[in-house]
């Protein structure tokens, strides 16, 4: 009888003799057979055969990040049907080096277009209203309260100086005003029936204004240039070069002050 039960259900005799509680249990015969149980049984009536073990679990085939990728091959083939040669690491490195060289050449060619213009630092990039020297130049040029027009004239003159000298126009104007600025002025005082010229020192603002007036007068007398910006830029450059009419007036004033140096002690 026990043999018939074992043939029908494949259950060992030890499982029938020893009744176990109706909880999840594993067949005893499976441990004797040396195989892994197929499933956990929840009742005494449903049990799987221990003679058919399950296959081992399949591991997920996830590629490792450190695994190097295979070399890429060319997709295009020739007309005769021949396979394209794969791109090696050396050839790809050469292509990358050539691309970097071409990019560097393009950047150098683009920068060479602006190589003649020297960069202006933030301290030198001053506006026409905040800078006292340029503001005084604008106010001296201004007529009938048209300040915007005078500012445009000064800005155009600065650009013209930059295009001619390829340097900072602000420094050119500073040098020109310093060269054309007189040190002394003559003050007329009456002593009895005589009018005496007394040389007196000038402040920095007075010296600068006198130089601006002389430069503007000399620029108005220039011939061959119709635009005001061209005449003004040419006169500033002429002062720096030493052949301006403003320098002549400065030397004349200093000679007169030297001739009247005996009157320097007089009070006025």
Give me the CATH architecture of the domain at 132-265, please. Orthogonal Bundle
Quote the CATH topology of the domain at 132-265.
Answer: Ribosomal Protein S7
CATH-defined superfamily of the domain at 132-265 = Ribosomal protein S7/S5
Q: Please give the count of helices.
A: 10
**SSE order, one letter for each helix or strand:** HHHHHHHEEHHH
Described by strand count, sense and barrel closure, the largest sheet is: 2 strands, antiparallel
Total beta-strand segments: 2
By secondary-structure content and strand pairing, the structural class works out as mainly alpha
Largest sheet: spatial strand order: 1-2
Topology:
Layout: H1 2-9, H2 13-17, H3 28-33, H4 89-112, H5 132-141, H6 147-165, H7 169-180, E1 184-191, E2 194-201, H8 204-220, H9 228-241, H10 245-259
Antiparallel strand pairs: 1-2
Helix pairs in contact: 5-6, 5-8, 6-9, 7-8, 7-9, 8-9, 8-10
Keywords: Ribonucleoprotein, Ribosomal protein
Region (Disordered): 36-111
Family: Belongs to the universal ribosomal protein uS7 family.
Which features characterize this protein?
268 residues; 10 helices; single chain; mainly alpha; Ribosomal Protein S7
Question: How would you explain this protein's 3D organization?
Answer:
With 268 residues, the protein is mostly helical. Mean pLDDT is 71; it is low at 10-50, 72-90 and 110-122. A two-stranded antiparallel sheet has the order 1-2. It has helices spanning 2-9, 13-17, 28-33, 89-112, 132-141, 147-165, 169-180, 204-220, 228-241, 245-259; strands at residues 184-191, 194-201. It has ten helices and two strands. Helix 5 packs across helix 8 (204-220). Strand 1 (184-191) and strand 2 (194-201) form a beta hairpin. The longest helix is centred in the middle third of the chain and has 24 residues, at 89-112. Helices cover 49% and strands 6% of the residues. It starts with a helix and ends in a 9-residue tail after the last helix. Among the domains are: 1-51, no CATH class; 132-265, Ribosomal protein S7/S5 (Ribosomal Protein S7).
């Amino acid at each position: 009888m026990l043999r018939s039960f074992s043939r029908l259900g494949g259950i060992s005799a030890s499982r029938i003799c020893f009744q176990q509680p109706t909880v999840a249990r594993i067949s005893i015969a499976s441990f004797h057979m040396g195989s892994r149980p197929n499933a956990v049984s929840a009742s005494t009536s449903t049990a799987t055969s221990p003679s058919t073990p399950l296959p081992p679990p399949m591991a997920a085939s996830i590629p490792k990040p450190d695994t190097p990728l295979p070399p890429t091959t060319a997709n295009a083939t020739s007309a005769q049907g021949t396979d394209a040669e794969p791109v090696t690491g050396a050839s790809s490195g050469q292509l990358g080096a050539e691309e970097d060289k071409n990019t560097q050449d393009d950047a150098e060619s683009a920068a060479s277009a602006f190589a003649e213009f020297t960069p202006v630092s933030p301290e030198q990039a001053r506006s026409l209203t905040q800078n006292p020297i340029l503001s005084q130049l604008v106010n001296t040029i201004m007529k009938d309260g048209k300040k915007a027009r005078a500012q445009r004239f000064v800005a155009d003159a600065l650009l013209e100086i930059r295009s001619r000298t390829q340097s900072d126009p602000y420094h050119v104007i500073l040098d020109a005003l310093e060269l054309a600025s007189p040190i002394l002025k003559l003050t007329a005082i009456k002593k009895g029936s005589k009018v005496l010229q007394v040389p007196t020192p000038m402040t920095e603002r007075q010296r600068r204004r006198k130089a601006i007036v002389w430069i503007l007068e000399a620029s108005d007398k220039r011939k061959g240039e119709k635009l005001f910006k061209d005449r003004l830029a040419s006169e500033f450059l002429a002062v720096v070069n030493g052949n301006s009419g403003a320098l002549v007036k400065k030397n004349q004033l200093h000679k007169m002050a030297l001739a009247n140096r005996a009157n320097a002690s007089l009070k006025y």
